[in-house]
Amino acid sequence: MQARLFRFPRPPNARRLWPLRLAVATLLAVPLLAWPAVGSADASSPTYSGRAYVVQASVLGTQLPRIADTGDLPSTGGAQEASLLTVPPISLGSAGSFNGAEVAHATTVGHGSASRSEASVASLSLTVAGTTIMADFLMSRAAAQCRGSNPSVSGSSELASLSISSVNGGQPITVTGAPNQTIALPFNA
């Protein structure tokens, strides 16, 4: 399955909305998962790496703390997880606010010849430059595997019920799954 990328181009007569683009790109493209990797110094002693977190974002220089962060997977492997039932709102000063989320969960596992990580969150909401971005569900998965001298990696993401307050009156936006899906923002967004 190919990763889904989303771009939000600026209409020719629109003002610059890079903070909003940065926030949306962070929410959609990085829900927020460090890519795991598996390496091996020799066939008998594999080493692992991986990390997962639900949200890491920076808006107009204001850094959000990582939410539901597993921390780094030990090089010897194992499993680590982090969960929050409710993520409270976080002010981003004049840039806006992270309005909160529910059921934030991240996990990373290294075992055998593979390492995998995933992160998911429900009911996520963020306001930037007066525009509110919401999603009912976000999930990102990544995996790395070594079979002999043949490494392979894979990743996927899921997004359900995306809405942007300035697009279609805040009605849900159809996510097609096509790479580089574009959602035009109105001039006054």
What does this structure look like?
With 189 residues, this protein is mostly beta strands. The protein has one domain (16-39, 46-174). The protein contains one helix and twelve strands. It has one helix spanning 18-29; strands at residues 6-7, 33-40, 46-52, 58-59, 62-63, 78-87, 90-91, 96-111, 114-128, 131-147, 150-164, 181-182. The strands form four sheets. Strands 6, 7, 8, 9, 10 and 11 form a six-stranded antiparallel sheet that branches. The protein has a two-stranded parallel ribbon with strand order 1-12. A two-stranded antiparallel sheet has the order 2-3. The longest helix is centred in the first third of the chain and has 12 residues, at 18-29.
* H and E order: EHEEEEEEEEEEE
What is the count of helical runs? Answer: 1
| Spatial extent as radius of gyration | 18 Å
Measured distance between first and last alpha carbons: 33 Å
Poorly predicted tracts of residues: 1-41
Q: How confident overall, as mean pLDDT?
A: 79
**Count of individual beta strands:** 12
Strand-residue fraction?
over 45%
Please bin the fraction of helical residues.
under 10%
Can you lay out the helices and strands and say which pair or pack?
Layout: E1 6-7, H1 18-29, E2 33-40, E3 46-52, E4 58-59, E5 62-63, E6 78-87, E7 90-91, E8 96-111, E9 114-128, E10 131-147, E11 150-164, E12 181-182
Parallel strand pairs: 1-12
Antiparallel strand pairs: 2-3, 4-5, 6-8, 7-8, 8-9, 9-10, 10-11
